[in-house]
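Hey, I'm writing a tutorial for new members on how sequence and structure tokens pair up, and I'd like a real worked example in the thread rather than a made-up one. If someone can provide the structure for the chain below, I'll link this post from the tutorial.
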Amino acid sequence: MTCPFTSSLTTAACATANIASSYPPSTAAVRLFTISNKVPDRHQRSPTSKILHLVRHAEGTHNLCEEDSKKLIHLDANLTPRGVEQCNELSKYTRSLKVEAVLVSPMTRCLETAKMSFPHLYGSLEDECNNKDISGASRSTFDATNEKILHSKVPFVAYEEWRETVNYLCDSRRPTQVLQMEYPHVNFDHITHEHDPIWAHYEGIFGSHTNHTTKRESDDAISLCSRAHSAWKVLLNRPEKHLALVGHSAFFMHMFTPLFEELEGVVQYDDEDVREMMTGKFENCELRSVVADVP
């Protein structure tokens, strides 16, 4: 009944690997530290540590009414007008952050949040020139004199590992090609399936959204344990030292405030300050910054 998650998701059913043996309960995937006077020193010493800015997506249409989130109209839910405003407010702060890459769940509400909360980083160098209507010799001059602007664009990379727990239609993502067309500056190379393999797996077990209206993946502790390990692995393997991550409250909760024994200890905390900061519920468009390192 479990849906073992691997970073490649080699099969749509993804139900053959024995995750329990791959990731024993309480095996740590990451250790978190507060950003304080002593942490930057550690950050400079450790080749594996990263400054991490975690953001929960802004308000989505499914957040307005929990029961409505199960309806077809909220499949891969969009942001509300209030959610857009939240992103605009957050963007005033993110401009002061050093961010070398933005990792994002492939759900629309997260893609929109990433795009609008880090607007100064989203886009291509070509866009920068085209928006200013620059070409030819003038463009060369622009490139030379605005090097800092041109090189401010950073990778936006979608990872299936960081998506929301898959329970209702709002958690079912749209086809990859559709997302690629709507978000051309997001790298979807790590999304290996055109259609949602996790939703398909649980639909095969429980039936359609009309036949099964309660939780799916959120009751599958072994799958969640595997996905949590995979999520931290892809993050810690990134070459950048300063990362932003746009994700979801329930998946954050299962790692930071686990309900299942299998997820206890997946995230280790260096002290009580960072534990207290990370175990509270993430509000819409809330940002929290920590140092992450291998345990």
